[in-house]
Amino acid sequence: xxxxxxxxxxxxxxxxxxxxxxxxxxxxxxxxxxxxxxxxxxxxxxxxxxxxxxxxxxxxxxxxxxxxxxxxxxxxxxxxxxxxxxxxxxxxxxxxxxxxxxxxxxxxxxxxxxxxxxxxxxxxxxxxxxxxxxxxxxxxxxxxxxxxxxxxxxxxxxxxxxxxxxxxxxxxxxxxxxxxxxxxxxxxxxxxxxxxxxxxxxxxxxxxxxxxxxxxxxxxxxxxxxxxxxxxxxxxxxxxxxxxxxxxxxxxxxxxxxxxxxxxxxxxxxxxxxxxxxxxxxxxxxxxxxxxxxxxxxxxxxxxxxxxxxxxxxxxxxxxxxxxxxxx
Length: 328
Hints:
This protein is mostly beta strands. The protein has one helix spanning 124-128; strands at residues 28-32, 56-57, 60-61, 66-67, 81-99, 110-116, 133-140, 146-150, 156-165, 169-170, 172-179, 191-192, 201-205, 229-230, 240-258, 269-276, 279-288, 294-298, 305-313, 317-318, 320-327.
């Protein structure tokens, strides 16, 4: 098995990282300059934006996005509109997507994105006064289109600010990156070393045909099978697998392998292999799984590892993978 430690095996390295701003990961749009036509909270909803033509409410056509009123200052003297987003997972930002889906005659001509690191629980006024760094310079936008921008900045950020010039509608803002939470709160305590929220990341996988592998380490419980990781049907030799870079080097004591919602496409069995440099350790030998079932396995290996390879046989899906233990 080839060992992977980075996301270079995905088609788009920046998009292989999770969306740190996603509402389901704890993100929030904490303030906006205006939301007269459509609510700011739509910016970070999961899923593709939806649209139904000639669906009118009290504020006009209903849009699945954020839309501000028309500004009446052609020279821009009265400023521009903006939205402040608290990242659900603080971290290093690798890429930004500004999506103007369905906004065809009312999209902003241009936009920029800034980022800031503000610890604690700041108010909107405190955020506006923060030290902001431009991570996407002012760029031109098109209507009804996704705009992708890679970010080369190794600093850790907690918030982003989307600026639109001068006004208009944005359907979604995606902020892809590597989670960098403060793990000091777990000092002396156990934690889920495989949790996305704690800084773990799926760095490679054999197949992601039906759903993203990082779903397997996302917060909470999967509500349906699309919220887990599922592969295509394997027709040849071998088996499917994913590789998890742990939140930190640690000792794993309990593994949870959850096949909830996978009634007819759960793997027949699973094994876990820990990696630490050039060393491989068997954490869990090949073990039978049941469909639609949370499985819990106590692990006895005392040595710390940095990565865990999850092999499923021969294919199928997992709702969640939890690896509880202690940082080394």
